[in-house]
Request: fold
Amino acid sequence: MKVDIVGDIHGCYQELMDLLMKLGYQWSEGNIYHPDNRQLAFVGDLADRGPCSLDVIRFVYHVVIELKQGFYVPGNHCDKLYRYFLGNKVIPQHGLETTIAEYQELSTQEQEIVKKMMITLYEQAPLYQVIHKIDTVIAHAGIPEKYIGRNDKKVKTFVLYGDITGETLHDGRPVRRDWAQHYQGSHWIVYGHTPVLEPRFVNHTVNIDTGCVFGNRLSAFRLPEEHIVSVHSQQPFIQEKFS
Reply:
């Protein structure tokens, strides 16, 4: 089994298309395929902040739900957008406002279609994806070995937000413990959530959120090859987003 795991996209649809072409994917009659029978996987945070969040949702829905040729796990931004579409009271900030603005430009019929796509994607997704054939776990913000196999509220908080302490930084971001430093498992843990300038390899884990929406790159981790493929972002570079 061969899988290409794509990092946080955040509405950067053109960069996603550039990355898929670089990875060797091809299109035929509206469907995407790879000549080596590779499959796609997505670590979550499809939408918010970037220019084309709804196109990303449509594409991932097509691959994962319609074609059944890929994997998707939700990120914290996916979770918030899902709650917005359910009609829950959420604050439109931290990028959600850009997705809502796109959504409100659609016709009522188009809105219903996109809303149903996102709700279906989210509700059919696992909290984290275990792929036994390549000994890999995909989780948006990561997952410690002791949580693999569990699906409770504590696990959900971890995979969506990371190992948060409850404290916040001066800019409002939560303080997170570096859980990867203590990981001792045999599975690859592939995650994103926290932007890094270069993919971060620690103890058989890799963070592949290379901050495309903040002007750096969009990256994919190829397995079983254990190889990174990236494309440059078309968004303005924002240095302070990278810790």
Q: What stands out?
A: The two ends are 34 Å apart (CA to CA).
